[in-house]
Here is the input.
Amino acid sequence: MKTTQIAQKAEGAMADGARTARSRLEDRLSQQSGPSAEQARRMAQDVNAVGEELTKRGRERPARMVSAAAGRAEQVGDYLERADGSQMIDDFSRYGREHPGMIGLAGFTAGFLAARFLKAGSGATTTSSSGSGGGQGAEFAGAPVGTPGGAEARPSGAPAAGGHSASGAPSGGR
Here is the structure.
């Protein structure tokens, strides 16, 4: 009996939390939809101008493609202006049920891009700024291909053409 009551309380607390999160998201979407709609319309106008310029230059096919993109941006602006936060969440949920692969791909892409931005922001680089060749796998020893002397770029520690590592020690990989 006690376990059932605990489970019911936990379920109620989770439902309350979900309602609160949805409410906050609806409010945030409703607040941001107006400025986002205006931004989408400005972008559509700019893209239309590019399409008109392409038409003037006789580039009909790219101009049609650009005009189609401008039309889509205008549609997004219209949707953002007329839809409230609740409708946007419902539409996104319906789209996710109808196209789960696209939502998965979008999530993967967002995660990948976030990782790239975080890596770029951390100051991590693929080459050594000190040039000490401290054995980092992403550092390169030697000069780029085509430099005088014919040196090839290779990761430090990787075997050179003669089967020796960058340090000159014989490599055991051959």
Observations:
- The two ends are 70 Å apart (CA to CA).
- Residues 2-56 form the longest helix (55 residues).
- The helical segments are 2-56, 60-82, 85-98, 100-121.
- Confidence is low (pLDDT under 50) at residues 128-143, 149-154.
